[in-house]
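Quick bug: VOC family protein output formatted oddly.
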Amino acid sequence: MKINSISGLRYLVKDLDRTAEFYQLLGFRIGKRDESEVTCYINWFWVIFSVDPAGAAAAPDLGPALYLKVDDIDDSYNALLANGLSPASEPRKDRSGRKEFVLLDPDGNSLVFFTK
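Here's what came back:
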């Protein structure tokens, strides 16, 4: 398995408007936006900011996550299994059509492996 790049992060926020304005002032470009998410870019690196009106307990998969781009999602998934690791999810398509799966580190932080 080869990780190509650290492509982005995801964070929960309380106020999308305030967050978008703050990051835009820092020089981030605002990308896709809807009522629950805004994506901000610096070059190719992105940060997705999400609000969760029901509370984080209702959607634990929205917490902080590090996104790692790989060439082949199925090979990467199988390589982790072969090394004795247990991903928290199987490869599946996300809202944007990327195929991804989640692996939790020893402290419970989400590593999202994805391919386009």
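Actually, after a second look the formatting is fine. Residues 16-25 form the longest helix (10 residues). Closing.
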